[in-house]
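SEQUENCE-TO-STRUCTURE ENTRY
===========================
Question of interest: how does this chain fold, as expressed in backbone structure tokens?
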Amino acid sequence: MLDRFSAQAAQYARYRIDYPPALYEFLLAHTSHRERAWDCATGNGQVAAVLAEHFEHVAATDISEAQLAQAPQRATITYQVSPAERTPFPATSVDLITVAQAVHWFDAAAFNQEVRRVARPGATVAEWGYGLVQVHETIDPLVRQFYAGTMRPYWDENRWHIDDEYARIPFPFEAVQHAHFQVRRQWSAEWFLNYLRTWSSVVQYEKQHGQDPVLLIADELTARWGPAEREIVFPVFLRLGRVE
């Protein structure tokens, strides 16, 4: 189990994006029953909190106690420390399984086996993530070089599954569908730099070298950004299937 986000749990909760209503509308339109959902690798619980508005109960799991400590408390959500591949849930007990920006960290075969164990017949499983942020033609090359150049030695190999939208991760379910969405936000340069500090590669760099690698591009990025907020765009990809 790789835990790459406990160290920056508070920053993660503040500076990471949430997901658009259109994604949840798509998800719910393909979910027949809404008694119990499992949000796997829930992190700070943002997806679980939305699902709780539509399901009688949401079970939310993560391997990071620090991340779960940031999660919103709801009467219909139960948070538990648990790996994705081995949960305490009874068999055939879940109507929906969601994984946001995390399935690339799992043992895919073991996780898919656990999904089949806990899913009720006809349950929905949905996995999604988001690619590299887009800002402006004057800024994007700087961010790409930081992402794929400076930070490359500090990313786990799992990270590159994001770049090909999970194409190499098995998804052995029925009636598979794919969808794309966008998350648009207005951010200052300072906010953007703090978002970069939530990257697992940045944390790994800091552990190895004792300094913040974001400072390597902070001055140049801030100069290109200017004093005003800019619109930033995250491309979100999703795949959804049915567990028979």
